[in-house]
Specification:
The chain is mainly alpha-helical and 370 residues long. The chain has one domain: Orthogonal Bundle (ABC transporter involved in vitamin B12 uptake, BtuC). The chain has 16 helices and eight strands. The strands form four sheets. It has a two-stranded antiparallel sheet with strand order 1-2. A two-stranded antiparallel ribbon has the order 3-4. A two-stranded antiparallel sheet has the order 5-8. A hairpin with a 2-residue loop joins strand 1 and strand 2. The longest helix has 27 residues. The radius of gyration is 24 Å and the shape is globular. Pfam families: BPD_transp_2.
């Protein structure tokens, strides 16, 4: 016996099978979380294509690949590392504004330990490290991990607000780095150390391999284990996650340690690139760029769902924007103004109240037009 429900359901099923009413591939692509950051990056690249001569030109010199695109990716590497760490922190409803200070500390520790002393070997002057480089790098990363443990203890253990807890290290950490160096720039003369920031492997900057390895390990941990799901649960509702049996304090402690570890790597990369440690300027405002990169990539500051790939794209957007402004001969201050505008637009896009106002405005216009 046919019912009216069958008369409605069958045509709908047939229409869905036929395809016109089903969402097209284009619409699915537009709705993808990475569509907007990718579109912004492509738009910037198109601007560079039109206004910056030879922007996409690549050439090989001494077996190394050179060009504007390679330069952007290389200079964005420290920011990508900081953004990856910041992504997990923000996913738990936290924030870490001490990233720049951790960069200064790790770079300072490595530079002070490695240094460089000139010796004569077979009549040729060469610089040797004051401390074996492996131990110096381990000490620098150890200092970064201690910074992360301090932040994690304050946030997860003592329950301090993340922005307040990390503000302590943001101020004290850079001060400690300046005390270590007596406010001076520490120069490194040991060439093998430079490879971390300015070396090449198989024609590409070595920093890109470091970033790729960190991204791959992080993505595997987040997708192939339950860790990513646990972090999302803590960000969505920490109380419910704790009642469900998750060790929320341990998870929060972990993300702050991981964030500082990424910042420590970024500090080594920056110090190796400039062949010195500048405790006053190294990593300055890097935490703000990392937060902006994460939000540009689609991760909400309210916590919960996050996108590692989106954070990488966000970091590339920021570095491409900086490169574009400098290439066009605009004052460096313009970069800060543009970033502030971008932050404002990102905040609007994540505001529930603004979205409701926008929907009401569109509905009102459609009603008036009808």
């Amino acid at each position: 016996m046919n019912s009216p429900l069958n008369d409605i359901a069958v045509p709908r099923a047939a229409a869905a099978a036929s395809g016109p009413t089903s969402p097209s591939t284009a619409s699915m692509f537009v709705r993808h979380p990475l569509f907007r950051p990718l579109a912004a990056l492509v738009l910037l690249l198109l601007v560079d294509l039109l206004l910056v001569p030879g922007f996409f030109h690549l050439e090989i010199k001494d077996g190394h690949l050179y060009g504007s695109l390679i330069d952007i990716a290389n200079r964005a590497a420290p920011l990508v590392l900081a953004a990856l760490g910041m992504t997990l922190v923000i996913a738990t409803r936290g924030i870490d504004i001490s990233v720049g200070a951790v960069v200064a500390i790790s770079g300072t520790v490595a530079a002070m330990l490695i240094g460089g002393t000139m010796v004569m070997q077979n009549g040729v002057p060469e610089y040797v490290a004051n401390t074996p480089m492996v131990w110096a790098l381990c000490a620098a990363m150890g200092a970064a991990l201690l910074c992360g443990a301090w932040n994690g203890l304050l946030v997860a253990g003592l329950g301090l607000q993340p922005i307040v807890a990390t503000l302590i290290l943001m101020v004290a950490g850079r001060g400690l780095a300046q005390l270590f160096t007596d406010g001076q720039i520490v120069t490194v003369y040991y060439k093998p150390f430079f490879f971390l920031g300015s070396g090449y492997l198989f024609g590409l900057p070595f920093s890109l391999y470091i970033v790729g390895a960190v991204f791959l390990v992080t993505a595997l941990l987040m997708r192939k284990t339950a860790l990513g799901l646990f972090i999302q649960a803590v960000g969505i509702n920490p109380v419910a996650a704790r009642l469900a049996g998750l060790k929320t304090a341990v998870l929060i402690f972990f993300v702050y340690v991981f964030c500082s570890a990424c910042a420590g790597l970024a500090g080594l990369m920056i110090s190796a690139n400039i062949k010195s440690a500048d405790a006053n300027n190294a990593g300055l405002l890097l935490e703000l760029d990392a937060i902006l990169a994460v939000t540009l990539g689609g991760t909400s500051l309210a916590g919960g769902k996050f996108s590692l790939a989106g954070s990488v794209i966000g970091a590339l957007i920021i570095q491409t924007l900086t490169y574009t402004i400098y290439s066009l001969g605009l004052p460096p201050e313009v970069n800060m103004v543009v970033k502030s505008v971008v932050v404002f637009l990102v905040c609007l896009s994540q505001s529930a109240e603004f979205k409701n106002m926008w929907r009401a405005f569109r509905a009102k216009n459609k009603g008036g037009a009808a």
